[in-house]
Amino acid sequence: MDTNWREDEVIEAVIGAGSASLAIGDDTATIAPSSKSRVWCSDLVVDGVHVEVDRWPLAAIAHKAVAVNLSDLAAAGATPEATLLALACPPAIDARAIAVAVAEAADRLGAPLVGGDTTRGATLTLCVTALGQVDGTPLTRRGARSGDHLLVTGPLGAASAGLRRVLAGEAPEALPRHLHDALFAPQPRLAHGQLAASYGASAAIDVSDGFSLDLHRLADRSGVGFELDHVPIAPDATLADALGGGEDYELVIAIHDPSALIDACRAAGLREPIVVGRIVADARQRTLGGEPLAPRGWIHGASSPDITR
Hints:
Layout: H1 7-17, E1 37-46, H2 58-75, E2 79-89, H3 95-108, E3 113-120, E4 125-134, E5 149-152, H4 158-167, H5 177-184, H6 190-198, E6 203-206, H7 211-222, E7 225-228, H8 239-245, E8 251-255, H9 258-267, E9 274-280, E10 286-288, E11 291-292, E12 297-298, E13 306-307
Parallel strand pairs: 2-3, 7-10
Antiparallel strand pairs: 1-4, 2-4, 5-8, 5-9, 6-8, 7-9, 10-11, 12-13
């Protein structure tokens, strides 16, 4: 494989691969003006931290780099518009191949790649920025109120269970399909988020760093507590995977009346969100099955990222 690339070649490769070719090739990308609320987000994917190049196909790395951003848009109730890619690539990896894979993933997920930057670096690093728009006010982690029901858009822990098996030496292609897809091809719950915003959700967050940790973050920002009755666990996963494994990219939604949202999801052919508990006024009360629930999950930048407090 020829890894002696130039940035112009990367740009030309992406122009040939993505659906937003007219927006690429200049120092800025132009997106049509809109009267809707605009939301932006940005996430890094770094070899040795979030993925392992020796174990992950490049297409899966590219997909993850886009999907983690669109999951943040989903939690805002946003419709994606476009993405940007800043790429640092070591000599052993063809930047053209990874950039094309990102452009293809962005197209599949409805957020065409419209520009970015490339450079050589010691470690493969992808920084994707996503732009979206929302009718009305975007959902945030703030706003959950006492009496709201807590919903999750699907079972949890599959990505963590799949990663554990891959790290133990199991080939990715040998994983059960649901574990493989959860780990290598997570799907941001964009339609669920858009419906949640339309049907009066008060707050939302995506489960990226661990369900218990992310739920605590929502409660912290809203100044409330919560009571969980149960946690939906994916097949072949454990309760520990579901509570703290992270990278599920399901949504946690706080909403006063969940029935209309559940009905709307069913009518749209989406998986029905699962009611798992409720919001309470006392911010000190955070329980699962009546027992205190500590936050567990991934803390970015920590020397020991799997934590409790």
